[in-house]
Amino acid sequence: MTSTDQQPFLSVRDLKVHFSTEDGIVKAVDGLSFDLLKGKTLGIVGESGSGKSVTNLAILGLHDRDRTAIEGEILLDDKELLTASEKQLEKLRGNKMSMIFQDALASLSPYHTIGKQIAETYRKHTGASKSASRARAIEMLKRVGIPQPETRVDDYPHQFSGGMRQRAMIAMALVCDPELLIADEPTTALDVTVQAQIMDLLKDLQKEFGTAIIFITHDLGVIADIADDVLVMYGGRCVERGTKREVLKNPQHPYTLGLLSSMPSLDHPVDVPLNPIPGSPPSLLNPPSGCRFHPRCTFADKVEGGLCSKEQPLLEITDGRGSACHLTADQRGEYFSDLAGSAAN
Fold first, then answer.
1. Beta bridge partner(s), residue 99
2. β-pairing, 212-217 with 41-45?
3. Measured between alpha carbons, how far is 68 from 58 in angstroms, rounded to an integer?
4. Domains (ranges, CATH) in the chain?
5. In what order do the strands lie in the sheet containing 79-80?
6. Comparison of pLDDT for 28 and 5, the residue scoring more
7. Phi then psi for 30, rounded to 5 degrees?
8. Are 19 and 25 in contact (CB under 8 A)?
9. pTM for this model (two decimals)
10. Band of the pLDDT at 15, cuts 50, 70, 90?
11. What percentage of the chain carries pLDDT values higher than 90?
């Protein structure tokens, strides 16, 4: 996913995030690696509980360190984040890296105006005056398409619509021109029209600021619209990586195939039923042996010797492309050949 002549702005290596609970150890992320270049968007996709949000909270240093065991390496512009102090992370959060959360209403304080919350973020990291910070808040509200920003800057979150609150969250996340933006399913609760507007806004702002973006979603349709590269997660692990077109047009893992097959498409007749993935995501307290997807995989019986239930498949990455699956290339070509890659169009 990275070219040989560019150094990744963000590099994650063998990341493990385990939580201690009364029932045992939850292996929420279990050996994840990826790179992200400046000005590019990495889409991380997977069902709820796959480890997407846990990964990005680890990047931001937002896990409770008393309850969470984190191993591996996270380099942001060659600075190690896992060993950074809370004071060092506070300087980075909102400044060099920032996050847009899924639920803007829950993330914004109901007791302070939208403008004050944006201005305080800017003032904290830049030391600007109150008047300059307010002017910056108005500028950002205008930039994200809020009408009459000079007036709306003094409104409270409940006075904004859902789409406008999400725009305000984006304004707050970008007010200090961060070099890394993490968007955690920012369009899930919005209607399709507003969703499209938010996606266009993020792409326009990325062009303007050159921001590296991690976009978390369970929706491959959204991935097709915004991502440059795709990382598919299942059970706390990466099962497939590649460019958007490679993954959506030519999936190499049965889980990715299942996600695509269960997605509605305008190209398919309305009377053709969707093919949902059978079963449920694995328990991360007691995950299955071998490939964590094998209990739900329709191709597990195609692999000789019951290997899928015995051995964890290796994720072999060549030129940014790879999948963790025991099926051979010939088997994947035979079994996956009927998939229509309309999502990549």
1. 182
2. parallel
3. 10
4. 1-96+178-345 (3.40.50.300), 106-173 (no CATH)
5. 24-36, 10-21, 68-76, 79-80
6. 28
7. -135, 70
8. yes
9. 0.90
10. very high
11. 65
Helix (H, G, I), strand (E, B) or coil at 124: helix
The tokens describing 147, both together, are 């009408």
The pLDDT score that the predictor gives to residue 18 is 96
CA distances from 56 to 214, 215, 270, 302, 322 (A): 8, 10, 37, 35, 22
Mean pLDDT value of segment 270-277: 74
- At residue 181, the 3 state secondary structure works out as strand
pLDDT, one tens digit per residue, over 88-105 is 999 999 889 999 987 788
For residue 57, give the amino acid letter.
L
Q: Which of 316, 332, 334 is nearest to 324 (CA)?
A: 316
pLDDT on residue 208: 85
For residues 48, 59, 245, 221, the Cα torsion angle rounded to the nearest 10 degrees is 40
- Tell me the per-residue pLDDT of 162-199, one tens digit each, with 9 for 90 and over: 889 989 999 999 899 899 999 998 887 778 888 888 88
Res 325: pLDDT: 95
User: What's the rounded Cα separation, in Å, for the pair 205 and 208?
Assistant: 5
3-state secondary structure 237-301: EEEEEEEHHHHHHCCCCHHHHHHHHCCCCCCCCCCCCCCCCCCCCCCCCCCCCCCCCHHHCCCHH
DSSP string spanning 47-91?
A: -TTSSHHHHHHHHHT-S-TTTEEEEEEEEETTEESTT--HHHHHH
Asked if residues 290 and 308 have their Cβ atoms less than 8 Å apart, the reply is yes
